Each structure stands twice: as C-alpha cells, then as structure tokens.
Amino acid sequence: MKAAEEFGPWLARQLKNARKSQADLAEELGMTRAAVSAWIVGRSVPRDETIQRIAEVLQTDLATIHTRSADAQVGLPVSWYHRPAHADGGREYGNAAAFAFEADVSVLAREATQNSLDARLDPAEPVRVRYTLHELTGETLARFREAVDWERLLPHYEALTAESGKQGKVSRTIAAGLKDMYQNDRLVLLRVDDYNATGLTGGDYDNGLFAAVVRRQLDSHKKDPGAGGSYGLGKATLWATSRLGLVLINSTLSEPHEGRTERRLIGRLDLPWRKVGGQEFAGPAWFGRPDPDAKSTDVARSWWADEETVEKLQLTRESAAPGTSFLIVGAHDVASLATVTGADDEETAEDDDTVHRMHARLVDALGRNFWAAMTGGGDHKPQLEASVRTFRNGEILIAEERVDPAVTQPSRTRALRAFLEGDTVDRLSAPGQVARATVHLNVPLHGGQGRGSVPHEAVLLVTHAEDADGRPNRLVSMRGNRMTVKDSAVANVPIGTNPFQAILLTGRAAGQDAAGAEAAEEFLRASEPPEHNKWGQTEELRLSYSPSAYRRIAALTTAANSAVRDLVAVPRAKRRNGGEAKIAGRLKVGGASARKTRSAGAAVLPELDNVDALIDDAGAWSVTVDLRVSQGVDTDRPITPIAKFDVRSGPRPAAPWKELVAVSGCEVVDGALHLTPGSRKAVFKGVTDVSRHPVRAQLTGLVVELRIGKGEQA
Questions:
Q1: What is the value of pTM for the model shown?
Q2: Phi and psi angles of residue 571, each rounded to the nearest 5 degrees, phi first
Q3: Spatial distance between the Cα atoms of 657 and 623, rounded to a whole number of angstroms
Q4: Any idea which of 24-38, 271-285, 327-341 has the lowest mean pLDDT?
Q5: In the sheet where 486-489 sits, what is the strand order?
Q6: Where does 627-687 have alpha helices with state H?
Q7: Taking the CA atoms of the chain, what radius of gyration do you get in angstroms?
Q8: Which range has the worst mean pLDDT, 124-138, 309-323, 594-608, 614-628?
C-alpha cells in the first residue's frame, strides 16, 4: 500500500500528539537525538528493527507505521470536548444563526448545495452533490451510538430534557428527538457529500475553510464575488436540520494539511447552556482528539481517521476526490410533518413514510433551485450534478435518483440550453423556440463614488411553458452560480398570451463576454439577504454603494418585465387562419340608464384610453381596456363592461364574459368594476365565453360598452 505521508512529518506529528520531544524518543530508543532529527527532516529512515521499537514507544502496530494512513492511538482517545460556560455568567440557549432558516430539508438542500457550488474545485467539471437518507434501527442504531460515544453525550442531553419546558425551542426540539429515538428505536441520518470541491482546508483555528465551517459563525470565507453565499449563515442549516444538534464531518482536502488529505474528521454539537454534574457548559462541543498545542488538555481538534472508524461513523466516501461529507444526526423535516399531521408541534411523532417524503422533497428542492446549474449545452458542461438516495439499515430503500433538469423544469432547461448553444431567435414564432433580448443594468460605483455607473447587459430568455414547469408566466432570475434567486410573476401580461417561462441571466451567467459582468455580480450579491432569494435593499448594499442603490434593481426588474411582455406579445388582431380579425377600436357607452345619467349630468363615465384585442387559440376574444378616470367620475357607483359582436345590421349580439379580471385602479365584484377612489387610470382584462358565442369571432368585430350599475349581459 502506498504511504499516504512521508515518514518524517508523520513521526513528528505522532511525537507531538504523544507530547514527546525528539530527545525523549532518542532516550527511549537508546539512540542519539541527531539520528531522530535526521528521520524527522527526511535525511534518513530507521532500520526495520528500530521501526519495531518505535511502534512499541508509540503503542501502535507495524502496519500503522509502514502505511502511515492513520495516526497512532497513543495518548489520543477520540472523545467529546464541551466548551465551559462563560466566566461572566452569560448564557446562550441555542445558536442564533440556526434561527435564520427553517428546519426544512428544502432549505437545507438550497443552502448546502449552494456552498458546494461555491467550493467547486475544477471549473471545467461539475461539482457532484449526493444526499443520502439513512434510517437506523435496532442493532445498527446501537452500533452507531457506540461509535459516537453516546454515553458521554447522554448526560448533557438529559440535563436539557429535564428542563426542556424552561429553556425554549431548542431544548424542546432536542427532547422530541430523544423521545422519538428511544420510543421508536429509530434515528434518521442525512448525509451531504460533495466531490470536485475544495474540502475543508486550513488549520483547526487558522483563517481557512475548516475553521469557518466548524469553529466560527458569520464567517463565509468566500472572497469570489460570484459566490452564492456571503453571510456565513448557510452552514447553520446543517445543525438546524438535526433534532439532536449534532453533525459529523469527513473531509478530503484539495491541499494537504499536516501532510495528509484523506479522512479528516471532526464532529460538532450545538446545544443550549446546560449544567451537568455541577459544571456549567456554554453550548457547543467538538468530537475529536485532544489538541497537544492547546493550553487545556480537554480541547478537541480534528483527527486523521482510519477506514474502520469512518465506516462505523457512516462517513465512508466513495472515492478520494476532494470534497466534504456532512452527516446530520437525527435529521427531521418540519414541512414534511406538517403536510401529514397538519400540526406544527415539534413533538409530533414521525411515521414510517418520513424518509420517503424527505427523499421526494430533496429531489424537488434540488430541481427547483438548481435546474440551471445542472444544465449544459454546446461547449458548456453543467456546473452541478445532484442525486438523492435512501437506505434503511444499510439496505437500499429508494434507489439513487439523479435530478434531471429536463424533467423538473423542461421549458426553462430548453431555454438555457438554447442560449448556451447559441440557438435563440429574436421573437417567438413557433413552439419550442427560445427568444432572446438584452436588459440593461447600470451598476452604481462601489462606495457611492460619483455619479457614474458600469453598464451591464443582462440576458433575457423566453420560451413557451409546459405543464411540468409549474406555474406559467414566471420570470426567474440568477447570477453566476446559476442558483435561482428570484422567482416572480410577470405583471400585466395581456389575457390570451400563450403561457411562457422567462429567465434573466445576470453577471457571469450572462456569459464570459457580457459587459459589466463582474461589477453586476458584486452589486447583486450585496443586494441579497441571508436566504439569497431576492434582490433588494440590504444593509450591505446601503453601506457598500449608496442608500439609493436599490433603485437600480427596481429599474432592472421593470425593464425585464417590459422586455418579457414585448417578446410574448401576440400581434394585434392576429387570426389563426391567417386573415385579419375585425376589431371595433372604440369604447361605446350604451344602455338607456346610461343615456339618462349622461343627460341629467349626474355622473360621468371613464374615457377610453386604449383597447388591445385578439382572438386566442380557443376562438375567444381577449381584450385589455385602459380607462382614464376624470375628476367628475363617481367612483362609488359600479360600472359594468359589456362585450358585443359588431354585426352589420340588427341588434348587436352579446358576448358574455368567461373571465373578467381587474389589473389596476379597480376591482371586479360580481361582474362589475369598482373604481379605486383617487385613481386616475383603471385597467381591466376580459375573455369571452366561446361556448356562448352566437357567431364565430373570426367573422365579426367586437364592441365593448360601459354601463352604470350592474347590468345584465344577455
């Protein structure tokens, strides 16, 4: 077996762990200190008989020294270190960062996968993320509890359980998790593995990824402006998803630490303040080996584990590819429970379908949030591959399911792939096409310097929607890492418009050559809250740019919505048979009551500002009417719009509404418009009922009349 580490650095660490000096080892071996020093610096290696004596001194076997794939065990038992309470008497009854997110596997999938994307090692290849649910029962559960030294943890849990009613939500959640585990003899593990990622590099306490994740709060350690995370809060979802506040970690490093890269293990426990055996503890605890450099012998640090230990802790990785495995112990999903029970009580017992529902919700969340990152095209490979699998006591319960963006979001995936392959059009004219437009964003200068700006050209894509996409007529927005940030409805879409999906690509997502991409990445990242689910005013945006910088984002949204409407607009009066439909481009005021009202001068009707009309695929008239509301209009009286066919002779047949919708400046109640007091404009939309048409819409025009009061349409 190939040695994982050179003999000299390995021996130096073993001496350090055993709190022995080079002189101590030389004395016990009966050799000179110079000889030991030569081994340490790599000038020579000991003979076989000397290695045997070194093994005796380190209390290990020859295989450990020859392979050097793990540390010797002398003086380094793996155990739990609990942080002592604050000397000034301060107490924390939980990790506040965990309350920034719900205990929801959908939220976990979004935050954890975003972190994996940000840690992608080789930008030419996708980062691979796999979620593994594993339900343990019976003997399998007993062996796992033994591996995590459960007996040392139990007194701390019992101390919290005894006062769960006094210490708030965290203690009650832990009490519910313990109750479920002991009463049902069941524990759910959720492991998040990523490959082609950097791994948790750096020292246990130095500035690095390891310390940022395991030791600190509000430290994202992400300097790239294109990174999805920026607050250092996303990692808290790992502990928030654990009912026991316990997460174990196994990391394969992209850069050696202490001469090693594989099986760097640590565990972190987040508990509230507690008193155990007369001693007070602050909250967090770490599962590791005593740190020989720490002032206190109880301080635990990460350690390099052997394969057997990793297997017992359910942390075996499938390959030596760099990345990290997070094991959430006692995973739960409040949203899944609420779906079944209709209750929000943390003590609600989980049923046998728990892991099935969690599996389905993980697949849904990955597809909904990261379909774009999982889409490739042309010379562009996907940024992400994701899958979910489920086990029970080591046996496959649900086979591994790879998330396919073409299945979860077919229309949007088609649109993005067309962009990546350069296969877009200026305007939609046939099903399956993808229209492209440019939306401009003027990025303000960092620090509010001057009145200048950096122009950025974002890319807008629009395509026809399919049922599998979910709600139609939506605009999803994203930046460089291609995680969905905003998902909003496009306002003021004319009735009769074919269902569509739209995508706004900003920053690096708009392409390598997009003008102002880097400035846009930094600007939009500063405008995102910890959930990274919208763009708007934030404290970072206000301080880094200016108090009014958020207005640029509002302008971007307005411009994007306008561009979408332009791309999906159907040419006015377009007939499906190729001819031109006749539209009475006027608004008539009809009805005896209306004429009497006008002559008496008691009320004034709104005036026509604009009428848009077309015949949809079903043969119905779809109209959008803009009204000007002058000061003389009585807004207290309802107005009924009546649609009629514009025939050559005789009375005009009515065209009853199938749908009548208020857009702005009014509301529709029982088929009548109620104008908003003070509004100077009202817009409503209507679609006629084809089943009640006396003649085909293509054979005639349309007239829309207004009547005072609730008029009849027949």
A1: 0.72
A2: -50, 135
A3: 11
A4: 327-341
A5: 434-444, 453-464, 500-505, 474-478, 486-489
A6: none
A7: 33
A8: 594-608
